[in-house]
Amino acid sequence: MREILDDIDRWRSDGKKVAVARVVKIEGSGPRDPGAAMAVNEDGEVAGSVSGGCVEGAVVSEALAIIGENAPGRMVTFGYSDDEAFAVGLTCGGIIRLYIEQLDW
Amino acid sequence: MTTTIYQQFTDYLRNETPVALATIIEGPGTGAKLLVARVAGVETTSGSLGHPELDRVVARDTAGELEAGRTGVRHYGPEGQATPEDLIDTPTVVVFIESFSPAPQMWIFGAVDFTAALGRVAKVLGYRVTVCDAREIFATKRRFPMADEVMVTWPTPVFEKRGNTLGPRDAVCILTHDPKFDVPAIQGALSTSVGYIGVMGSRKTHNKRLERLAEVGVNSPEQLARLMSPIGLDLGGRTPEETAIAICAEIISRRTGHSATSLKNTDGAIHT
Fold first, then answer.
1. Which of A47, B135, B232, B235 gives B247 a disulfide partner, CB atoms 3.0 to 4.6 angstroms apart?
2. InterPro entries, from UniProt (chain A) (predicted)?
């Protein structure tokens, strides 16, 4: 989170809405530990990362949906062995659980 | 004036105050936050998860996770119930507790060419870098703009004053080659619980240094085993930058306990 603060501050001072995705849990093999964070602004600009590039695209879509709907934060799971799993997954075969929310706190 | 939780959180992060953020990620109150910071050794809490008892229990657990530097998920009842029996027949509140410890430290002794390269690589890895040399003309912020701090001093007072801030995540790299400076720096580093002590020099220099250390009473196998000398992995590089990579790679492999050989030649999971 530390490394994306400057980008977040810049976006917010420009009046942009921002959503933050944080890795909450990794099952099996995963490239980033819990706490890895990525911020997305309403224009789709991105700071930080939550995996080795495997799920970032899907996280951006999800973050933009949350901003667009003005929706509360929610959990999102990527991986192959879960019913709620999205079509994309980690190439290394693990399951990644993220919490994505608007930065309105 | 009211300050948002986010503002407090980022202020703590920026001034290197240990802080942990607890967020309800599933269940009643999703999105609610509790912030626990350790300011001058005292825990201060702000925000709320919606129930005083839940706040009390999560604040207690969050302080524990912060102390241990851990990040993870915990489950509670809406009124702070925490035992499995209490959680039967209640909705579950899933709380993500994220600890932010201050950046690890790297202290580099000796203001030489290798110091600048090592400082740059250490910054990439997220270290707070301190450069220390007794020679005023070499130890300048101008020569080491990447350093968070440049100190003109002998090693002993630095360790006496702040050696207790060094821990297993931190590193001391001694690059001087000068026994007048090396020996007290090694003695100082050995008096701390720092995780990595690397000392530069050829094998010949290393052997001479061992004699000097023995003269001042540093000769126990446990003490000498902590010294990574000659410093760095055997990558065969020569330039200061290549040497800096070899040193930092050794620091990482010592921390993880991995073999530092090519993954191609090993079996098993990569991320362990």
1. B232
2. MoCofactor_Util/Proc, XdhC_CoxI
Report, as ranges of residue numbers, the positions in chain B whose pLDDT lies below 70: 1, 271-272
pLDDT value of position A87: 56
Please name which of B13, B12, B34 lies closest in space to residue B23, comparing C-alpha atoms.
B34
Rounded-to-10 torsion of CA A50, A53, A54, A55: 50
Distance CA A105, CA B95 (A): 16
Q: Which residues contact B86 (CB under 8 A, 6 or more apart)?
A: B77
Mutate to test the interface with A, among B12, B15, B74, B96 (most CBs of A within 10 A): B96
Residues in chain A within 8 Å Cβ distance of B23: 73, 99, 101
Residue A82: which domain range? 2-102
Q: Give the Cα separation of A72 and B219 in Å (integer).
A: 61
Contact predicate B198/B250, CB 8 Å:
yes
Phi, psi values for residue B58, rounded to 5°: -70, -40
Question: Which residue of B13, B26, B98 is in closest CB contact with A35?
Answer: B98
pLDDT tens over chain A, length 105 residues: 988 999 999 999 999 999 999 999 988 777 788 999 999 999 999 999 998 777 899 999 999 999 999 999 999 998 754 454 455 666 666 788 999 999 999
Pick from B78, B80, B86: which is nearest to B62 by CA? B80
CA B24, CA A52: separation in Å to the nearest integer? 26
Shortest alpha-carbon distance between residue A77 and chain B (Å)? 13
- Verify whether the Cβ–Cβ distance A92 to B271 is below 8 Å: yes
Contacts of A73 in chain B (CB under 8 A): 23, 25, 30-31
ipTM: 0.89
Which residue in A70, A75, A99 has the most chain B C-beta atoms within 10 A of its own C-beta, making it the best mutation to test that interface? Answer: A99
Q: Is the dihedral of CA B32, A19, B27, B80 positive or negative?
A: negative
Counted domains in chain A: 1
Indicate the residue of B14, B25, B33 with minimum beta-carbon distance to A24.
B25
Q: Could B73 and A9 be called an inter-chain contact, meaning their C-beta atoms sit closer than 8 Å?
A: no
CB atoms within 10 A of CB A50: 23
Q: Phi and psi of A68, rounded to 5°?
A: -60, -40
